[in-house]
Amino acid sequence: MLTTPVRSRTLNDKPDDNQGAIEAARGIHVEARATSNRTLAERLAAMRPRLHRYCARMTGSVIDGEDVLQDALLRALEACGDGREIANLDGYVFRIAHRAALDHLRQRARRESKMSNYDVNRVEHPLAASDGRVALQASLRAFIQLPVSQRSCVVLVDVLGHSAEEVSTITGSSVASVKAGLHRGRARLRELSLTSDETPPLSAEQTRLLRAYADRLNAHDFDALREMLAEEVLLEVVGRATLRGRSAVTNTYFANYRETTNWHCVPGLIEGQPGLLIHDTAEADGPPRYFILTEWRDGVLFAARDFRHAAYAAEAAVMGPIG
């Protein structure tokens, strides 16, 4: 009778079936976590327009608002990226955005305090507003004149539709304080309704460069546009990608514009910064769909931010064509 020799098992030995089960479990865990992260990213992407409305009005700028929004989304991904479930993701992310906006205002205060007596709770800027639903009609620069506590209450309730109880949770204030801030903020916006915005003009050289860039982009003359780029140009497609270098911008970014024809651009100012206002050719007389910020140095395009995939920023932007 033949017998199979028995080998003594060491601490390093693991049964094959157990090892397979362990590896399978690891694979399931990794896949589940990846799926959870994708779902979280998709939910956060869907929240971007509402978050931007809040961040832009807290900072008084659609541009700064986008910066704060991106910071808040990164914080949210880091905080939630371990796969744990968040019972109220909307409220949780708005709390993060609220803190990110306050951090931004504090950093701005520190910068400004070196030159002036700056108060993070009250930043003076001109504005334009109308009566009725004042918060929905007020410009971003109107909001920035409100104390932060009033500003957050008005934006969250009147612009985004949160209840006083929800605002209390987001800001960490009592419901009574929220209601008081809301009442005072609405009253202050009405008081500020007659002041108008003033935008400094561009230099003649900036205007020339911007118009030349717009003309060549409209003509799909991408070879000529390439020559207007700095060698190490930095271009951000907001919410999608960042490209560095003339070749990357030409081969990827310009290639995407080459394939579409339903847009037309005009040189303009966005919150006082030079850029392009992008219109839909089917609605030539309508408002811009989105905008592209440009930064010029030594006669070439040094940096740009394209808001094509963040068109929500145009909703409250103070912008217009160059006269």
Characterize this entry briefly.
With 323 residues, the chain is an alpha+beta fold. Helices cover 51% and strands 15% of the residues.
Relevant terms:
323 residues; alpha+beta; Butyryl-CoA Dehydrogenase, subunit A, domain 3; seven-stranded mixed sheet; 11 helices; 7 strands; 51% helix
Characterization of the model:
The protein is an alpha+beta fold. It folds into two domains: 26-197, PhyR, sigma-like (SL) domain (Butyryl-CoA Dehydrogenase, subunit A, domain 3), CATH 1.20.140; 204-321, Nuclear Transport Factor 2, Chain: A (Roll). It is 51% helix and 15% strand. The chain contains eleven helices and seven strands. The protein has a seven-stranded mixed sheet with strand order 2-1-6-5-4-3-7. Strand 5 and strand 6 (300-306) form a beta hairpin. Helix 1 crosses helix 3 (89-113), helix 2 packs across helix 3 (89-113) and helix 6 (148-159) crosses helix 8 (175-191). The termini are far apart.
Separation of the first and last Cα atoms: 103 Å
- Average pLDDT, to the nearest integer? 80
Helix percentage: 40-55%
> SSE order in H/E notation?
HHHHHHHHHHEEHEEEEE
- The number of helical runs is 11
In the sheet with the most strands, the strands line up as: 2-1-6-5-4-3-7
Per-chain topology:
Elements: H1 16-59, H2 62-80, H3 89-113, H4 134-137, H5 140-143, H6 148-159, H7 164-171, H8 175-191, H9 204-218, H10 222-226, E1 229-237, E2 241-244, H11 246-258, E3 263-270, E4 273-280, E5 290-297, E6 300-306, E7 319-321
Parallel strand pairs: 1-6
Antiparallel strand pairs: 1-2, 3-4, 3-7, 4-5, 5-6
Helix pairs in contact: 1-2, 1-3, 1-6, 2-3, 3-7, 6-8, 7-8
